[in-house]
Design goal:
Layout: E1 3-7, H1 11-22, E2 26-30, H2 33-42, E3 44-48, E4 53-56, E5 62-64, E6 75-78, H3 85-93, E7 101-105, H4 111-118, E8 123-128, E9 133-135, E10 140-143, E11 149-152, H5 161-166, E12 171-174, H6 178-188, H7 190-197, H8 201-205, H9 208-228, H10 243-247, H11 251-257, H12 271-277, H13 288-297, H14 303-316, H15 325-334
Parallel strand pairs: 1-2, 1-6, 2-5, 3-10, 6-7, 7-8, 11-12
Antiparallel strand pairs: 3-4, 8-11, 9-10
Helix pairs in contact: 3-4, 7-9, 7-12, 7-14, 9-13, 9-15, 13-14
Length: about 325
């Protein structure tokens, strides 16, 4: 069986790599020494909102702290934070075999391009993780929302498809991944709202004021995408252009019309919330910041998403981290 490396063993990397390893794949995790110590002491526990649960004991976890361990694997999953992509690409360029397949499973839109610039002989594919993973205590990683792994279609993925299917994480190939990435990014515009609410996702989305914040951010993004001639894919039962209208419904009506949006594990939170809790730089520049940059390319502005970027950066620096729905909505409307 081909060896697989996970470059960036954080929440997504440990969960996806862990599911593969639990299903029998040969996986090496590459990450920070701190997490390596945690897994060496506690093992790796994987769970999801449907009841899946597996534990990998410490002796069965292959964990490294340098990119050198990616030299042999035929498949490398890059799951580092977007700000670290260029660094990871340079490290991988020194060690990867020329025929390696590299898949970016990261937030944002441009990470695969950054990897391709440095990895000129390898096959580099864009991918996407649509579900949420929470890193709990004692080496536990929990998938709290639904979704399947999306990836650019390529013949060189064929040898690895069975491993992902056996792990319960089948790859969904797309000839053109960009509309899927934009659709996911529109949903991820909620990440800073969830982080600033300091609430679990289900609780936050149950409150109309917070949903109206998300509706503002999505409506702004959808208008810019339309101006750019980009049609986001449909990832949910509700087409992307209709979602802001559904979000703005009163709570009781929202629960009736959009019950699927609330079919979320009560424990689930955004990764941005987790980043703020541990005083780590967030990926807001690669999520809401993408809307701001799209506006700039079109000679327009994106005041709602720009405000969310600014509020999260302020929270990173010790500013206000807990906003009520009405307060946040008022701040976004004031620009």
């Amino acid at each position: 069986m081909a060896r697989i490396a996970v470059m960036g063993a954080g929440s997504i990397g440990c969960y996806v790599g862990g599911r593969l390893a639990a299903a029998g794949a040969d996986v090496v995790f590459i990450g920070r020494e701190r997490l390596g110590r945690e897994l060496a002491a506690q093992g790796l526990t994987l769970s999801d909102y449907r009841g899946y649960r597996r534990r990998i004991a410490p002796p069965d976890i292959d964990y490294a702290t340098t990119a050198q361990s990616a030299a042999d694997p035929a498949l490398v999953l890059v799951t580092v934070k977007s700000a670290a992509t260029a660094n990871a690409a340079q490290e991988l360029a020194q060690v990867l075999r020329p025929d390696a397949v590299v898949v970016s499973l990261q937030n944002g839109l441009g990470n695969a391009a950054v990897l391709r610039d440095a990895l000129t002989t390898q096959t580099v594919l864009a991918g996407m993780v649509p579900f949420n993973v929470v890193h709990g205590s004692d080496g536990a990683f929990h998938q709290g929302t639904e979704g399947e792994l999306e990836v650019e279609d390529h013949a060189r993925l064929a040898p690895f498809l069975a491993a992902f299917a056996t792990a319960g994480l089948p790859l969904q190939p797309h000839a053109d991944l960009l509309p899927v990435q934009w659709a996911k990014l529109l949903l991820n515009l909620n990440n800073p709202i969830n982080a600033l609410s300091d609430l679990p996702l289900k609780s936050q989305l149950s409150q109309r004021a917070y949903r109206r914040c998300l509706a503002l951010a999505q409506r702004e993004g959808l208008e810019l995408l339309a101006a750019a001639g980009i049609a986001p894919a449909q990832l949910t039962r509700v087409p992307a252009p209709w979602i802001p209208r559904v979000l703005a419904l009163p709570d009781a009506l929202f629960r009736l019309v959009a019950a699927g949006m609330l079919a979320i594990d009560p424990l689930a939170r955004s990764s941005m919330w987790e980043d703020l809790q541990v005083q780590r730089a967030t990926e807001v520049d690669w999520i809401n910041g993408e809307i701001v940059r799209l506006a700039e390319r079109l000679g327009r502005s994106a005041p709602v998403n720009a405000k969310l970027v600014a509020l999260v950066h302020a929270a990173e620096q010790g500013g206000r981290r807990r906003w009520s729905g009405p307060d946040l909505l008022a701040a976004l409307r004031s620009g």
